[in-house]
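Progress report, Aim 2. The chain analyzed during this reporting quarter is listed below.
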Amino acid sequence: MISIYLIFNIRFFAPKTQLWEKITVGIIPVAITLVYLSLTISEELSFDFYYGMVFVIATSIALGLAVYAARIFKEGLLGTAWLILVIGLLMLVGGDIWYYYIELFEGYSLEHIVNLFWYGGYLVILYALYKHKSSL
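Predicted structure tokens for the chain:
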């Protein structure tokens, strides 16, 4: 849903995208996915590995789109709100990568500190959306 929201905003405010901008948006998810792969790849690839890859790729795509949208709104009235949104998404991506890494090696518990990344990320995103609405 986050990616759909970002795509709609990007299409509305920047309908013409250059090839180099699309490449820039693609570099972030590829880099994050490669980092996750380098940390988790082993001889036996289980279902948990592939399941984690789906979520890491999805959140990293959302982060790449958010960085591009923040660049579009950088000079405008909504620049601060979009920068805060990117920070929140960065916290979510960090939490997802960390969670799927520790889940792959069966180290996750409900009291693990990785949960704070998700709570904090969603609170930062909530504040960004509030700031976005109050800026208009």
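The chain has one domain: 20-135. The CA atoms of residues 88 and 122 lie 6 Å apart. These observations will guide the mutagenesis work planned for the next reporting period.
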